[in-house]
Amino acid sequence: MKRRKGDGAGPPPYPAPPGFRAVLANGRWTYSANESPIVLSWHESMIEELCEQYGLERASFPDSLECVRPHLRHRFLLKMDLADAYGHVKPFGAFTMLDLPGEYEEHWQYFFHRDGGLIQGAPASSIIFHFYVRVMVERDLLDLCRDLGLTWSRYVDDFLFSSNTFITPRTQKRLKHHFAACGFPINPRKTRAVDRRKETLVHLGVQFENHRVVLPDSFNQKLNIASQWGDQTYIRQLELWRNRVLALNDDA
Questions:
Q1: Helix, strand or coil, per DSSP, at residue 166
Q2: Could you tell me how far CA 93 lies from the centroid of its own chain?
């Protein structure tokens, strides 16, 4: 079955797996297991197993601004996004690469669609994806970027590469080949290479300009809407975010 993105008009991209129900939220289909204690217990066990195995108490993801900071002083940027990232994590490859006990493989249907990838919205999906990418993609990416003279960071399925020398089409091709060899094609519509002296780039809610970072126009739109509604809590959150983003310029 070909995977389809939920747009609110058609059916879910996959039938709901055992113990899940399909939920349409913000125009996208996701899957909830909140009414299935058995499925939830398996996901909690998976999270504990992975965090213990990889030396973490719980799943820890980088702060988005920490994924921006390494690139502040670099002129050339290359943004790459994994296409259908969850859909390219297959059950038996994941269990093998993550060296998980056989009991999880026996209950793979609690974590994966029958003819697809990780279940979107399932409790353990983000942590499975996180560690799978670390094992499959990032181990060799470290050496590759060192050879290419690139700085890189990842936030979920968004990669950003940077350098003070031009990132050539040949370099981009080598990166794409690496991701493809790891089972992750790159989304060409979301791939952008820019020279900050000529163009801007928005990444993780931060707009890179020449020698500085600012808030994109979408931020001001959110702030205006929050002000119109008088939502003081959201206004404070947005103002805190603005202050954190602008403070990055002290390191640039």
A1: coil
A2: 20
Structure tokens at 64: 């988005």
* Cα Rg, the chain, nearest whole Å: 20
Q: What is the side-by-side strand order in the sheet with 151-155?
A: 151-155, 158-163, 76-81, 192-195
The partner residues of 239 in beta bridges, in order of sequence, read none
Give every CB contact of residue 196 below 8 A, 6+ residues apart in sequence.
74, 75, 76, 77, 208, 209, 210, 211
| Cα 16 to Cα 49: distance, rounded to the nearest angstrom | 25
Residue 165's alpha-carbon distances to 169, 200, 247, in angstroms, are 13, 17, 26
Are 163 and 150 in contact, with CB atoms under 8 Å apart? yes
- The sign one gets for the Cα dihedral 114, 14, 88, 43 is negative
- Convert the pLDDT of each residue in 131-162 to its tens digit: 999 999 999 999 999 999 999 999 999 999 99
Contact 252, 212 (CB under 8 A): yes
Asked if residues 186 and 83 have their Cβ atoms less than 8 Å apart, the reply is yes
List C-alpha distances in Å: 98 to 66, 94, 114, 235: 26, 6, 20, 42
pTM of the shown model: 0.88
For 95-198, where are the E strands, in sequence order?
151-155, 158-163, 192-195
C-alpha dist (Å) from residue 108 to 7, 58, 103, 116, 148: 27, 22, 9, 12, 38
